[in-house]
Amino acid sequence: MKIADFRSDTVTKPTPNMRRAMAEAEVGDDVYGEDPTLAKLEARVAGLLDFPAALFVPTGSMGNQIALHLHAPRGSEVILEAKGHAFHYEMSAMASLSGLMPRPVASARGIPSAADVAPWIRPDVSYMARTAAIVLENTHNFAGGTVARREHVDPILELARARGLKVHLDGARLWNAAAALGVSEASLAAGFDSVMVCFSKGLRAPVGSALLGSVAFIHEARRVRKMFGGGMRQAGVLGAAALVALDEERARLVEDHARAKRLADRLAEIPGLCIDAATVETNIVIVGVDVDRFGPAPTLVAKLGSAGVKINAAGPCSVRLVTHADVDDTDVEHCVTAFRGLAG
Ligand SMILES: Cc1ncc(COP(=O)(O)O)c(C=O)c1O
Questions:
Q1: Which of 98, 199, 279, 335 has the greatest CB tally within 10 Å of its CB?
Q2: Tens of pLDDT along 30-79?
Q3: CATH, residue 306
Q4: Containing domain of residue 109, as a range?
Q5: Which residues are registered as beta bridge partners of 140?
Protein backbone atom coordinates (compact mmCIF):
# COMPACT_ATOMS: atom_id res chain seq x y z
CA MET A 1 0.00 0.00 0.00
CA LYS A 2 1.35 3.45 -0.91
CA ILE A 3 1.64 5.64 2.16
CA ALA A 4 0.71 9.32 1.95
CA ASP A 5 2.66 10.97 4.74
CA PHE A 6 1.19 14.31 5.83
CA ARG A 7 2.62 14.22 9.38
CA SER A 8 5.24 16.89 8.82
CA ASP A 9 7.51 18.54 6.28
CA THR A 10 10.37 17.04 8.30
CA VAL A 11 9.74 13.61 6.72
CA THR A 12 11.18 14.68 3.35
CA LYS A 13 14.23 12.81 2.08
CA PRO A 14 17.30 14.68 0.80
CA THR A 15 17.40 15.25 -2.95
CA PRO A 16 19.98 13.60 -5.26
CA ASN A 17 21.75 16.98 -5.54
CA MET A 18 21.99 17.16 -1.75
CA ARG A 19 23.42 13.65 -1.52
CA ARG A 20 25.97 14.47 -4.20
CA ALA A 21 26.97 17.71 -2.47
CA MET A 22 27.30 15.86 0.84
CA ALA A 23 29.57 13.24 -0.72
CA GLU A 24 31.80 15.88 -2.26
CA ALA A 25 31.79 18.43 0.60
CA GLU A 26 35.09 19.94 1.67
CA VAL A 27 35.25 19.50 5.43
CA GLY A 28 37.32 20.20 8.52
CA ASP A 29 36.90 20.13 12.30
CA ASP A 30 34.29 22.80 13.01
CA VAL A 31 34.99 22.87 16.75
CA TYR A 32 38.39 24.27 15.68
CA GLY A 33 36.56 26.56 13.23
CA GLU A 34 38.08 24.71 10.26
CA ASP A 35 35.10 23.52 8.21
CA PRO A 36 35.02 25.57 4.99
CA THR A 37 31.58 24.33 3.91
CA LEU A 38 29.98 25.35 7.21
CA ALA A 39 31.73 28.72 7.02
CA LYS A 40 30.26 29.14 3.54
CA LEU A 41 26.78 28.15 4.72
CA GLU A 42 26.92 30.51 7.70
CA ALA A 43 28.01 33.41 5.50
CA ARG A 44 25.32 32.58 2.94
CA VAL A 45 22.46 32.40 5.43
CA ALA A 46 23.64 35.55 7.23
CA GLY A 47 23.65 37.33 3.85
CA LEU A 48 20.19 36.04 2.95
CA LEU A 49 18.67 37.28 6.20
CA ASP A 50 20.85 40.40 6.30
CA PHE A 51 22.26 39.59 9.74
CA PRO A 52 25.87 40.19 10.82
CA ALA A 53 26.56 36.55 11.74
CA ALA A 54 25.15 33.02 11.77
CA LEU A 55 25.87 29.70 13.47
CA PHE A 56 24.99 26.24 12.18
CA VAL A 57 23.16 24.20 14.83
CA PRO A 58 21.99 20.59 14.63
CA THR A 59 18.33 21.35 15.34
CA GLY A 60 15.86 24.20 15.48
CA SER A 61 15.22 23.41 19.11
CA MET A 62 18.88 23.90 19.96
CA GLY A 63 18.92 27.20 18.06
CA ASN A 64 15.91 28.47 20.01
CA GLN A 65 17.34 27.31 23.32
CA ILE A 66 20.76 28.85 22.75
CA ALA A 67 19.05 32.16 21.98
CA LEU A 68 16.93 32.05 25.13
CA HIS A 69 19.93 31.05 27.24
CA LEU A 70 21.74 34.15 26.02
CA HIS A 71 18.83 36.60 26.05
CA ALA A 72 17.35 35.81 29.47
CA PRO A 73 19.15 35.53 32.82
CA ARG A 74 18.39 32.51 35.01
CA GLY A 75 15.16 33.05 36.97
CA SER A 76 13.63 35.46 34.48
CA GLU A 77 10.49 35.02 32.37
CA VAL A 78 10.14 34.55 28.64
CA ILE A 79 6.89 35.46 26.87
CA LEU A 80 5.87 32.98 24.17
CA GLU A 81 2.76 32.42 22.12
CA ALA A 82 0.63 29.80 23.91
CA LYS A 83 0.69 27.24 21.08
CA GLY A 84 4.32 27.93 20.24
CA HIS A 85 6.93 25.27 19.55
CA ALA A 86 9.44 26.51 22.13
CA PHE A 87 6.75 26.26 24.81
CA HIS A 88 5.15 22.92 23.90
CA TYR A 89 7.65 20.83 22.01
CA GLU A 90 11.12 21.55 23.34
CA MET A 91 10.97 19.35 26.42
CA SER A 92 10.80 22.24 28.93
CA ALA A 93 14.38 22.95 27.85
CA MET A 94 14.23 26.61 28.80
CA ALA A 95 13.43 25.60 32.37
CA SER A 96 15.79 22.67 32.66
CA LEU A 97 18.78 24.06 30.74
CA SER A 98 18.52 27.76 31.49
CA GLY A 99 16.32 28.18 34.60
CA LEU A 100 13.71 30.22 32.70
CA MET A 101 10.00 30.53 33.33
CA PRO A 102 7.79 30.44 30.21
CA ARG A 103 4.90 32.91 30.20
CA PRO A 104 2.49 31.65 27.50
CA VAL A 105 0.25 34.28 25.90
CA ALA A 106 -2.80 33.21 23.88
CA SER A 107 -3.44 34.92 20.57
CA ALA A 108 -5.56 34.79 17.44
CA ARG A 109 -3.87 32.78 14.64
CA GLY A 110 -0.64 32.36 16.64
CA ILE A 111 0.27 36.00 16.15
CA PRO A 112 0.10 37.97 19.41
CA SER A 113 -0.52 41.69 19.21
CA ALA A 114 1.32 44.21 21.36
CA ALA A 115 -1.92 44.49 23.39
CA ASP A 116 -1.86 40.70 23.98
CA VAL A 117 1.73 40.84 25.21
CA ALA A 118 1.89 44.12 27.16
CA PRO A 119 -0.09 43.01 30.26
CA TRP A 120 2.30 40.08 30.77
CA ILE A 121 5.46 42.13 30.94
CA ARG A 122 6.29 42.21 34.64
CA PRO A 123 6.63 45.54 36.41
CA ASP A 124 10.02 46.16 38.01
CA VAL A 125 9.04 45.28 41.57
CA SER A 126 10.95 43.38 44.23
CA TYR A 127 8.43 40.53 44.48
CA MET A 128 8.14 39.38 40.85
CA ALA A 129 10.49 37.73 38.39
CA ARG A 130 11.72 39.97 35.57
CA THR A 131 10.51 39.52 32.01
CA ALA A 132 13.59 39.24 29.81
CA ALA A 133 12.54 38.18 26.32
CA ILE A 134 9.72 37.54 23.85
CA VAL A 135 9.58 34.72 21.28
CA LEU A 136 7.56 35.01 18.08
CA GLU A 137 7.07 32.15 15.59
CA ASN A 138 6.76 32.73 11.81
CA THR A 139 5.15 30.80 10.29
CA HIS A 140 3.26 29.58 13.32
CA ASN A 141 3.19 25.80 13.24
CA PHE A 142 0.22 24.84 15.43
CA ALA A 143 -1.89 27.84 14.47
CA GLY A 144 -1.82 26.34 10.95
CA GLY A 145 1.28 27.77 9.29
CA THR A 146 0.01 31.32 9.72
CA VAL A 147 2.16 34.20 8.50
CA ALA A 148 3.17 37.20 10.61
CA ARG A 149 3.53 40.33 8.50
CA ARG A 150 5.52 43.45 9.34
CA GLU A 151 2.37 45.17 10.61
CA HIS A 152 2.03 42.37 13.19
CA VAL A 153 5.68 42.24 14.19
CA ASP A 154 6.66 45.91 14.34
CA PRO A 155 4.42 46.92 17.29
CA ILE A 156 5.82 44.02 19.34
CA LEU A 157 9.40 44.99 18.51
CA GLU A 158 8.61 48.57 19.49
CA LEU A 159 7.06 47.46 22.77
CA ALA A 160 10.06 45.23 23.50
CA ARG A 161 12.52 48.08 22.85
CA ALA A 162 10.55 50.39 25.11
CA ARG A 163 10.61 47.80 27.91
CA GLY A 164 14.20 46.65 27.39
CA LEU A 165 13.31 43.13 26.23
CA LYS A 166 15.07 40.95 23.66
CA VAL A 167 12.98 39.42 20.87
CA HIS A 168 13.81 36.06 19.29
CA LEU A 169 12.15 34.83 16.10
CA ASP A 170 11.52 31.11 15.75
CA GLY A 171 11.68 31.13 11.97
CA ALA A 172 11.79 27.37 11.44
CA ARG A 173 9.54 28.04 8.43
CA LEU A 174 10.46 31.65 7.69
CA TRP A 175 11.11 30.46 4.12
CA ASN A 176 7.41 29.59 3.84
CA ALA A 177 6.36 32.98 5.19
CA ALA A 178 8.59 34.77 2.67
CA ALA A 179 7.35 32.59 -0.20
CA ALA A 180 3.71 33.14 0.77
CA LEU A 181 4.08 36.91 0.88
CA GLY A 182 6.48 37.15 -2.07
CA VAL A 183 8.99 39.09 0.03
CA SER A 184 12.57 38.45 1.11
CA GLU A 185 13.36 36.50 4.29
CA ALA A 186 15.50 39.49 5.32
CA SER A 187 12.46 41.80 5.26
CA LEU A 188 10.68 39.51 7.75
CA ALA A 189 13.74 39.02 9.98
CA ALA A 190 14.66 42.71 10.31
CA GLY A 191 14.64 44.15 13.82
CA PHE A 192 14.81 40.88 15.79
CA ASP A 193 17.70 40.35 18.20
CA SER A 194 18.06 36.78 16.97
CA VAL A 195 16.45 34.49 14.42
CA MET A 196 16.46 30.70 14.03
CA VAL A 197 15.78 29.12 10.63
CA CYS A 198 15.59 25.42 9.69
CA PHE A 199 16.99 23.72 6.58
CA SER A 200 15.42 20.37 7.45
CA LYS A 201 11.71 21.10 7.02
CA GLY A 202 10.17 22.24 3.73
CA LEU A 203 13.67 22.78 2.29
CA ARG A 204 14.38 19.01 2.51
CA ALA A 205 17.90 19.02 3.96
CA PRO A 206 18.41 16.01 6.23
CA VAL A 207 19.75 17.91 9.26
CA GLY A 208 20.36 21.42 10.46
CA SER A 209 19.27 24.90 11.35
CA ALA A 210 20.98 28.24 11.81
CA LEU A 211 20.92 30.85 14.54
CA LEU A 212 21.47 34.45 13.50
CA GLY A 213 22.38 37.54 15.47
CA SER A 214 25.09 40.13 16.06
CA VAL A 215 28.75 39.11 15.82
CA ALA A 216 29.06 39.25 19.63
CA PHE A 217 25.87 37.21 20.11
CA ILE A 218 27.00 34.49 17.70
CA HIS A 219 30.44 34.40 19.36
CA GLU A 220 28.68 33.57 22.64
CA ALA A 221 26.21 31.26 20.89
CA ARG A 222 29.13 29.13 19.64
CA ARG A 223 30.19 28.60 23.27
CA VAL A 224 26.65 27.72 24.41
CA ARG A 225 26.24 25.34 21.47
CA LYS A 226 29.31 23.45 22.72
CA MET A 227 27.94 23.48 26.28
CA PHE A 228 24.62 22.02 25.05
CA GLY A 229 26.55 19.25 23.28
CA GLY A 230 26.16 20.62 19.77
CA GLY A 231 29.80 21.23 18.79
CA MET A 232 30.21 19.15 15.63
CA ARG A 233 33.32 18.08 13.78
CA GLN A 234 33.15 17.51 9.96
CA ALA A 235 29.64 18.98 9.85
CA GLY A 236 30.25 20.43 6.39
CA VAL A 237 28.75 17.15 5.18
CA LEU A 238 25.47 18.47 6.58
CA GLY A 239 26.12 22.07 5.61
CA ALA A 240 26.57 21.03 1.97
CA ALA A 241 22.99 19.74 1.85
CA ALA A 242 21.74 22.92 3.52
CA LEU A 243 23.47 25.03 0.85
CA VAL A 244 21.65 23.06 -1.86
CA ALA A 245 18.42 23.53 0.11
CA LEU A 246 18.87 27.30 0.09
CA ASP A 247 19.73 27.41 -3.61
CA GLU A 248 17.19 24.94 -4.98
CA GLU A 249 14.22 24.50 -2.66
CA ARG A 250 12.92 27.91 -1.59
CA ALA A 251 11.22 28.70 -4.89
CA ARG A 252 9.35 25.38 -4.76
CA LEU A 253 7.52 26.13 -1.49
CA VAL A 254 4.65 27.92 -3.23
CA GLU A 255 3.71 24.51 -4.71
CA ASP A 256 3.38 23.08 -1.19
CA HIS A 257 1.20 26.05 -0.27
CA ALA A 258 -1.11 25.62 -3.27
CA ARG A 259 -1.43 21.90 -2.49
CA ALA A 260 -2.28 22.65 1.17
CA LYS A 261 -4.99 25.07 0.03
CA ARG A 262 -6.49 22.44 -2.30
CA LEU A 263 -6.34 19.84 0.46
CA ALA A 264 -8.04 22.23 2.90
CA ASP A 265 -10.78 23.13 0.41
CA ARG A 266 -11.51 19.46 -0.28
CA LEU A 267 -11.51 18.43 3.38
CA ALA A 268 -13.76 21.36 4.30
CA GLU A 269 -16.48 19.80 2.09
CA ILE A 270 -16.59 16.67 4.26
CA PRO A 271 -19.25 16.68 7.00
CA GLY A 272 -17.79 16.75 10.50
CA LEU A 273 -14.53 18.46 9.51
CA CYS A 274 -13.99 22.13 10.18
CA ILE A 275 -11.20 24.29 8.74
CA ASP A 276 -10.65 27.99 9.20
CA ALA A 277 -9.72 28.79 5.60
CA ALA A 278 -8.14 32.10 6.68
CA THR A 279 -5.39 30.20 8.51
CA VAL A 280 -4.33 28.16 5.47
CA GLU A 281 -1.64 30.49 4.17
CA THR A 282 1.29 28.12 3.76
CA ASN A 283 1.84 24.34 3.99
CA ILE A 284 -0.01 23.43 7.21
CA VAL A 285 -3.69 22.58 7.61
CA ILE A 286 -5.29 22.28 11.05
CA VAL A 287 -8.59 20.43 10.90
CA GLY A 288 -11.22 20.50 13.64
CA VAL A 289 -12.86 17.10 14.01
CA ASP A 290 -16.41 16.23 15.11
CA VAL A 291 -15.51 13.46 17.57
CA ASP A 292 -19.04 12.01 17.48
CA ARG A 293 -18.54 11.23 13.82
CA PHE A 294 -14.82 10.44 13.64
CA GLY A 295 -13.88 9.59 17.22
CA PRO A 296 -11.23 11.53 19.18
CA ALA A 297 -8.26 12.79 17.16
CA PRO A 298 -5.89 9.93 18.16
CA THR A 299 -8.51 7.37 17.04
CA LEU A 300 -8.95 9.16 13.71
CA VAL A 301 -5.17 9.26 13.26
CA ALA A 302 -4.99 5.49 13.82
CA LYS A 303 -7.87 4.77 11.41
CA LEU A 304 -6.33 6.91 8.67
CA GLY A 305 -3.00 5.21 9.29
CA SER A 306 -4.64 1.87 8.53
CA ALA A 307 -5.84 3.38 5.24
CA GLY A 308 -2.29 4.44 4.34
CA VAL A 309 -2.61 8.11 5.30
CA LYS A 310 -0.30 9.36 8.02
CA ILE A 311 -1.25 12.53 9.90
CA ASN A 312 -0.74 13.85 13.44
CA ALA A 313 -3.21 14.86 16.13
CA ALA A 314 -2.98 18.54 17.05
CA GLY A 315 -5.24 18.28 20.10
CA PRO A 316 -8.06 16.08 21.41
CA CYS A 317 -10.37 17.16 18.58
CA SER A 318 -8.06 18.50 15.91
CA VAL A 319 -5.51 17.06 13.51
CA ARG A 320 -2.64 18.58 11.51
CA LEU A 321 -1.71 17.87 7.90
CA VAL A 322 1.45 19.24 6.31
CA THR A 323 2.29 19.35 2.60
CA HIS A 324 5.88 19.01 1.40
CA ALA A 325 7.95 17.89 -1.57
CA ASP A 326 7.31 14.20 -0.96
CA VAL A 327 3.49 14.39 -1.27
CA ASP A 328 1.78 14.95 -4.62
CA ASP A 329 -1.74 15.43 -5.96
CA THR A 330 -2.38 11.67 -5.88
CA ASP A 331 -1.57 11.68 -2.17
CA VAL A 332 -4.03 14.53 -1.66
CA GLU A 333 -6.74 12.49 -3.42
CA HIS A 334 -5.85 9.42 -1.37
CA CYS A 335 -6.12 11.47 1.82
CA VAL A 336 -9.46 13.08 0.93
CA THR A 337 -10.91 9.69 -0.06
CA ALA A 338 -9.75 8.16 3.26
CA PHE A 339 -11.36 10.98 5.30
CA ARG A 340 -14.56 10.67 3.24
CA GLY A 341 -14.67 6.94 3.88
CA LEU A 342 -14.52 7.51 7.63
CA ALA A 343 -17.15 10.30 7.55
CA GLY A 344 -19.73 7.63 6.61
C1 LIG B 1 8.08 26.22 14.64
C2 LIG B 1 9.15 25.24 14.99
N3 LIG B 1 10.19 25.66 15.69
C4 LIG B 1 11.19 24.84 16.03
C5 LIG B 1 11.18 23.51 15.65
C6 LIG B 1 12.29 22.61 16.11
O7 LIG B 1 13.04 22.07 15.10
P8 LIG B 1 13.84 20.71 15.35
O9 LIG B 1 12.87 19.60 15.16
O10 LIG B 1 14.91 20.76 14.30
O11 LIG B 1 14.39 20.77 16.73
C12 LIG B 1 10.10 23.02 14.91
C13 LIG B 1 10.04 21.61 14.52
O14 LIG B 1 9.12 21.12 13.90
C15 LIG B 1 9.05 23.91 14.58
O16 LIG B 1 7.98 23.50 13.89
A1: 199
A2: 999 999 999 999 999 999 999 999 999 999 999 999 999 999 999 999 99
A3: 3.90.1150.10
A4: 14-248
A5: 146
